[in-house]
């Protein structure tokens, strides 16, 4: 009875369909060698992009503004028309709001609640409108604390006329919030350029060394 051959001397089995794989294998471990495919992908570039279609290694993108999008960057895409529209719209909304408040004031007087209540309501709306105007105007130049804004939500709702007037006056000079967004965008671009320069080095210095 013939003894079975040792595993080292057994002939390799051919696939059932007669085909043999052509993947390169490592001499030491016998596992498929994938370095060639990896090198090919690296030579072609990984091509990884974000969901918005911009490469992950790209520079910073400007943050869109309400009613303006990214037209504030180069003052294009109807930037002047948008500013005029925001100014006219905010002024019209403020005027309409004042008309509604006038009707409310007349209703208080008709109800004969007394002069004290009437004066108290007028002072309340005046103070809330002034605070809303100041808060909205400051928000065009710096970021507000979200927790503080949440606490002022009721006050800002009462003084909405002040917020509308802040939008109107700011639209006469620039898009509301443009100054803040431009400063942040420029800082992000400068930081990105510094990182890129450190990563790639100084090209002129490399030429002198060569």
Structural notes for this entry:
It contains eight helices and no strands. The protein has 210 residues and is mainly alpha-helical. About 21% of the residues have low confidence.
Task: Show the helix and strand layout.
Elements: H1 35-44, H2 79-111, H3 115-139, H4 146-151, H5 153-158, H6 160-171, H7 178-200, H8 203-209
Helix pairs in contact: 2-6, 3-6
Short summary of the structure?
With 210 residues, the protein is mainly α.
Keywords:
210 residues; mainly alpha
Helix percentage range: 55-70%
Q: Tell me, what's the shape?
A: elongated
Strand fraction equals: under 5%
The low-confidence parts are 14-57
Distance from first to last alpha carbon: 75 Å
Oligomerization: single chain
Q: Strand tally, please?
A: 0
- Total helical elements: 8
Largest sheet: none
Order of helices and strands: HHHHHHHH
Q: What structural class do the secondary elements suggest?
A: mainly alpha
What number is the mean pLDDT? 75
- State Rg: 34 Å
């Amino acid at each position: 009875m013939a003894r079975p051959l040792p595993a080292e001397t057994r002939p390799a089995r051919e696939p059932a369909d007669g085909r043999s794989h052509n993947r390169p294998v490592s001499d030491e471990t016998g596992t498929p060698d994938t370095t060639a495919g990896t090198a090919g992908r690296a030579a072609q570039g990984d091509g990884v992009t974000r969901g918005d279609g911009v490469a992950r290694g790209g520079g910073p993108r400007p943050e869109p503004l309400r009613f303006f999008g990214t037209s504030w960057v180069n003052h294009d895409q109807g930037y002047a028309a948008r500013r005029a529209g925001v100014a006219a719209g905010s002024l019209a909304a403020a005027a309409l709001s004042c008309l509604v408040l006038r009707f409310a004031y007349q209703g208080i007087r008709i109800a004969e609640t007394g002069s004290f209540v009437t004066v108290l309501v007028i002072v309340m709306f005046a103070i809330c409108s002034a605070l809303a105007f100041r808060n909205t105007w400051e928000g065009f130049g710096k970021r507000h604390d979200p927790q503080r804004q949440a606490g002022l939500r009721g006050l800002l709702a009462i003084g909405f006329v002040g917020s509308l007037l802040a939008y109107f006056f700011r639209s006469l000079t620039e898009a509301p919030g443009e100054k803040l967004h431009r400063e942040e965008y420029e800082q992000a671009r400068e930081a990105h350029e510094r990182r890129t320069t450190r990563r790639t080095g100084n090209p002129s210095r490399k030429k002198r060394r060569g």
